[in-house]
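Hi, here's the filled form for the chain we discussed.

Project: internal
Contact: R.S.
Residues: 490
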Amino acid sequence: MSMTTSPALRAAESDTRRRARRGLAVYFAVLVPLSAVFEALVIITGDFSWIWALMWTPAAASVVARLILREGFADASFRLGGRRGWKALGLALVFPIVLGLIAYGIAWTTGLVQFSPRPIGLAAPYVADTTSPAVVFVVNLAVAATIVTLLSARTAAGEEFGWRGYMLTRLIDAGVPRPVLVSGLIWGAWHVPLILGGVYLVGPPPVLAAVLWMVTATAFSFVFARLRLETGSVWPAVALHSAWNAVIQTVFDSASTGAEAPLWVGEAGILVALTMVVAAAVFSYGWWTIRRAPEQRPESGAARPALGQLAAPSIVAVMAFALATCGCGSDTSNSPSRTSHGSVLPRDLILPLTAVQEVLPEMSRETATGRDETAVGDPTGTRSVTYATADGSQRVVISVDHYQTPQGASSAYQQAFQASQEVPGAKGEPVSDLGQRAFIGVATQGNETHVGGGALYGDRIVTLTLQGYDGTQENRAKVIALIRKQAAAK
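And the returned structure, exactly as it came back:
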């Protein structure tokens, strides 16, 4: 019997492999140039609205491949798949919280990073000024794990429909050695131009950030793949991606402060990379089940263990290279670019009250001054001054951050701009003739509206926020006028 069926099986396998390779060829032929265009637009213009289009390029490439090759959408895995799928969905939503508590918890408890949570936009109405940091963090986490995760799915789905909904299964069918590892390397490399371009994972030197990110992404791909292949559904992968972006980027990253924070935590942080490697080893354990769709029976055969086999050694090898690059953090922490948030700049660098009153005559007193605690990156010096009305109901905060090089200032500015775009409900727009990449936006913090803006001037970043003001065009014009005054001050 085996003598007659073996040639037929080999022919079927050969046909499957050939069709998968054709699918991958079309997929990458669309993905690579389309991604290059949108990544270039983000890097050159600093306009992060292009991120939406970029994150949907994997899905778009998969649709084109399916249509051109007439593959159909039967294996797109849009069904959840009953109890197995629901369990995986729950695991996907919990995973970022558990990993965050471990990796960031180590950083906070050891003093490598300071724990300083502030209410995120959607959580602000439920948090009072006197609320303890722990409670603020828990409220932030609850909001991010639910509402923000649902909002994040709008973009995360675009990636996962392509990465795990198409590319991963085609890599398996094409006979690519260690397809999960390869899928992680491709997924990670897709982000690298944004890192090297200074618009993503800003903080550590770009090359170091890129290497550590590749460790995290490669390891993370094993978690994604196990959920996708065991359930036959793409939705657990979408949920995992959405929850990760919402929980880690919105809650854990914003609660971590200090000059060394970007080195230890964040998606390019050493502790996050190490913790993700452990998670990859756990998820890679044992034999893997491959389902193209939830209703299909799992595939059997001796080839199954190869998906998870050698995963941990492969990733540990990459991790060793990353740690060698950064000297395990010791050399980097002593480098001039990462010593601290810089000194406090002279007070007279900021506009005096009389100059502010020319635009905001209602301001009557200075209420605070010192280092700009909101500065990002590694400024050589900062200064922030707050003025207020007599009753304190309206305030203006002016900040100036100096950096060692214009490139350092540009990277920090991109990071700050990206963070402002991620605030739920925030609305911003570019401003011409006001420094480099100037923007102005309106956001609601609790019951109070803030009108703020910023601009890049070589090695300086100037930011200004009106607190307690309506987001009218008149108040936006006042922000622009004060930024222009501050930029001209010597």
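Let me know if anything looks off before we file it.
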